[in-house]
Design brief:
6 strands; 4 helices; Topoisomerase I, Chain A, domain 4; two-stranded antiparallel sheet; Gyrase A, domain 2
């Protein structure tokens, strides 16, 4: 394989790995009935006029499986933190005791579990579309190489390898979503 072919493959693999990592990061935000600090990931709080990630203005921990405790570094941030959590529409109702915010993570209903599974499948499908778009782009790059004088046999080998890598990442996505579905549906 020529250097150009290897470069196309490596760039495609790197992009596909990023899509897979993004999917896993999104799945961390899904509630599975157990409290997890990552559930609040992505929540932004108004910190002196700047929208700041919640983890940068407070300490978030889980003392048990049903409770998240958010301890701000400044006491005057309790109300903005509570507002930000409510505005994030995560289904949480933070309790302010003047020191910390306590968030009781309610057990998931069957209906909510099915809804989360549907969202997980949708997120996985988006990741697959992203992987397929990367494959299409890599095949277009391979066709450009053929026009530049790379032998047709090498292009066929490259296209076959592109498809093998794509199939590998699609199956990884399927396994990840299957595991997440089991995790969500387990009571």
């Amino acid at each position: 394989m020529t250097e150009e072919s290897k470069f196309i493959l490596e760039a495609m693999q790197e992009s596909m790995m990023n899509a897979l990592q993004h999917l896993e990061k999104e799945f961390h935000k899904y509630r599975t009935g157990k409290a997890n600090p990552q559930m609040l990931e992505g929540v932004k709080v108004d910190y002196y006029g700047t929208m700041t990630p919640i983890e940068q203005v407070s300490n978030i921990n889980t003392p048990d499986a049903r409770l998240i405790v958010v301890q701000p570094w400044e006491k005057n941030m309790l109300s903005p933190l509570a507002k930000a959590i409510m505005d994030a529409n995560l289904g949480f109702n933070p309790q302010n005791n003047g020191e910390v915010l306590r968030i009781a993570v309610p057990p998931l209903t069957e209906e909510r579990r099915r809804e989360l599974v549907k969202k997980a499948r949708n997120e996985a499908e988006n990741a697959k579309v992203s992987v397929r778009n990367m494959r299409r782009s890599a095949v277009e790059d391979a066709k450009k190489l053929e026009k530049e004088g790379i032998p047709e046999d090498e292009i066929k080998v490259l296209e076959k390898e592109i498809q093998n890598v794509t199939d590998h990442y699609i199956s990884k996505i399927d396994k990840i979503v299957e595991t997440k579905e089991k995790d969500i549906m387990t009571v």
